Each structure stands twice: as structure tokens, then as C-alpha cells.
Amino acid sequence: MTAGPAMVWQRNHRVAAPASCEYDILQIRESDFVTSANQQYRPEESCGLSAAFDRPLLSLLRALSRTVRLPAGALVNLPCSVLLLGILASGCTTYRQQNRILDYWARGDIAGAQREAAQKSASAGSGKDAVIWRLEHATILRSASKYEESNREFDAADAEMNRYAEGAKVKLGRETLALLSNQAMLPYEGRPYDRIMVSTYEALNELAMGRPDRARVNLIRAYQRQQEAVQLNQRRIERAKQEIAEARQREGVAQAEADPQFKGRLDSIYAPVRNLQPYADYVNPFTVYLDGLFFMTQAADGSDLERARKSFERALAFAPDNPYIRADLEAIENLFRGKPLPPTTYVIFETGRAPVRDQIRIDVPILFTRVSYIGAAFPVLEFQGDYLAHLEVSAQGKTQRTALVSSMDRIIAQDFNNELPAIITKTIAAAIAKGAAAYAINTAAGRQDEALGLLAQFLTAAFQAAVNIADLRTWTTLPKEFHVCRLPTPPDRRIELIAPGTGQKVSVDLIDGTINLVYVKSITTASPLLVSQVKLK
To answer: Helix (H, G, I), strand (E, B), or coil: what is residue 199?
Structure first.
């Protein structure tokens, strides 16, 4: 790319590159560079640091006007290099910093969370963060009992995830820009547990709207997705192995991974999450339990009852101390003997908040002269406390506690552990690539002018600090745990829900029905209980 009119720097407009833009050391094609730059450089999503880049970048662009040849023989075009820094530094806020939903959510302010999520979902369009913002929005709409709107958002997120799953590939140029900045610049494609929970929540929404036939479709889809998750994970492991092998071919990556001090720091950071006991084969025990409950209460024939029995048996294997699942298995056996279900009330309790991702910054053991900063940000799971460990259900003077069915902490930790080796290697590779790019720019600038070299070192150091962020995108409005309780429906059809230690008590008058489901959600110990009802039979 030649200097001057061939490249137009416009902070509030789009990047234009009518001439050739060859960045040979990074192998970015002109079409990929311009497309990715226009997609990624969005000032409204920038942090304040990128604005500070503009004036010195313009000065540097005017000063740098020719291509220089480095000792390695690679041609590095300086205006394109510096422009690339400004573009990549513009996306320097993490998902956690952008996600103001969490503040409202933790306070139990559903209306505030809904406003913020609606804005995020609308502004995401079909961009790289569309899936994650729609998942957050759909969950909040569900909590507000806006089931139809919730399912529309779940459907939109599902369609995007399906598009990615069917083989949509990220362009080479976008992957290269992610290598030079961070993995958060790539689209969020959804994780296996996301897809399972989408179908699970859609089934619950359909039940709440009195449409069991549609709920059946979604539960069947959820079951299929749990089977597919095993295959998807195997493909992901194979892809990760390939990515790790390719990354280790880059100079310095394998050496950095093997550094004892660096390795020891990572091992200490990830020990807690690695020690969590995973569920087998990407199973979500709550989805399995809900499948059993639905097909038991909505059984059309013996095959439905057999399906319910198998689902309850699987759920019990994951929660062997749960007395309510054992009672459900006994109820199934009675149905096979021709004995109908007695009037029963189920309480499903969704409590707490799913893990969020934070980041730890670690210096990478790689040395470049003329480079002021070489570091990398690694994601860590942060488990959320401040939750109700159980709910008490009282009826006719008798009180029972809910029992654990499924831990989302364990499900999410399992997925995190599966992708962690590739994350570590790619993060190291990205840190080294950014160091190499900074070295090239600083060396070239220093050869032209000492002051220019100092300015380049300042800008590249600021750039690396700005883009040194981990991909922290994760579905944060999921719960921490799912519990269940079952009890004979009292003659007065009234139960009381008690949040231990908080003083919260909610009286519930049960709607008409032989089999009732009371769904209770608690976000924190201080947030109000959100209660809804469904007639299962």
C-alpha cells in the first residue's frame, strides 16, 4: 500500500483502501483487511484509549511514507501497520465491561436488566456478539414472564448458532486480525450447553403458554442436542489439536508453554476449575429430568412412559441423593401397573447466577528488543456466591426442602476445561505475534528517526496493553443450580415458599390441575422470588 491518498484514515467513517495493501509478514489480503477493518473498527464500542491514538497516529502516518526491508526479508508497510494498530485497539473493552445487565440482574431489577438487554440485542444486529446478547435478552424476558418474546429471541440466537454449526467459516483475514488483537474479535458461535439450554427454556416457555405439543418438540430437540454435543465436542477437540499444532509452529510458542514459571502460574490459576467433577458426555441433568417429568405427565402411550423412566433413571444417576427423583420412578412404575398419578405439585427452583469470565494478565516469557510490553490475558471462571442453597416448601404444617438436580457450575466448567488447552496456546501465539509486529514497526520507525522510533514504541506499547484482553463472553443470566421438590397437592391448594435466612415468604394459591408445576427463580439472597405456575395435567 502506498502512502498518501491510497489509504484514508477516518475515525468516524469507513476505511478505504483502493490500492494494494500488502502486509506480507502477517499475510493479510487487501479484501480481508478492508472488510475486517470496517467490521471491527466501531468507535461507539471503543474505549477511551483509541481516541487518544488518533492524533499521534495521524502524525505517524504523515511521517512514515516508505516501505523498509527488515533483516528477516519481510516487507512491512508502515502506514498499514500503524493503521492496523488503531483499528485493533478500538475494540478494547471486555464483554464483562460492556455487560451492564449484570448490575441490574444481581439486584433483581428485571425491568432494568430487560431495558439494557433489549438495547444490546438490537444494536448487535447480526454481528459477532449477536448470539450472546440475544441469549441474555431471551433469559431476562422469560424471567419477566414474556414467554412469546423470549422464544422469539431464543429462536434468533438459535438460528445464528445453527448457521455457525452448519459450517460457516471465519475468513483468514479476520482470524489474522484476531491473532493480532484478541479472540473476542471473532464471532461468538454458541457453546454446546447454550444450545441445550435454549431448547430447554423454549420448552418451559411453551408449557407456560399452554402449548404442550410445542414443548414436546423442544424437549426432543434438547435430547438430540445432548447427543450431538458429544460429536460436536469431539470435532472441537480435533480442531483444537490442529490449531495447537499450527500455533506451536510459530517461533517461541512451544518454548513459552514449557517455561516452568509460566506453566506453574497457569496451573495454579486453573486448578480450582479443573478439580470440579464433570457430568458425563455433555449431559445437562436438569434437561434430562424435565424430559422425564414432561413425558410422564403428558404420556400419549407406553413409549412415552418408557422414555420418562429412562430419563428419570439418568437424572437419578447424576443426583443419587435426590429423594424426589426416586419418588418419580416409583410413580412411573405405578403408571405401568395402571395406577394413575395422584394430585401432585412440583416445585422447580432455579437459584443463583452462572459463572462469569474474568481475566488474569501474565507476562509471556518472550523477549523482543524495542518492545515495551509482552503480556497475555487468560480467561478464568469466576463462580458466583450469594445464592439460596435451597428453598423450603410448606403445606399443611409440613415443610420440605428442594434437592439439587443439576449444577450449571459443573456444566460450564466442563466446557471451559475442554476448550482451555487451545485457548492457552492461541493466546500465547497472539502475544508473540503482537510482539513481532510491534518489533517490526518500532525497528522501522527507529531507523528513520529516533523521535519517531520513541513515538512508535509508545504507541505499540499502548496498543498491546489496550488489546490484551481475553474473550469473556459467556451466558451470564443462566442460574447456578436447578433444584426440585414434589409433594401431594394439599386439599386447600395453598403452599408457602420460604427463602431461608432472608425473611422472604411467598404464599401460592395453586391453579386448577391434577399435576401442578410451580416455577421459582432466585437470583441472589436479596432479590425477590420470581414465581410462576403451569398446569402439567
So the answer is: helix
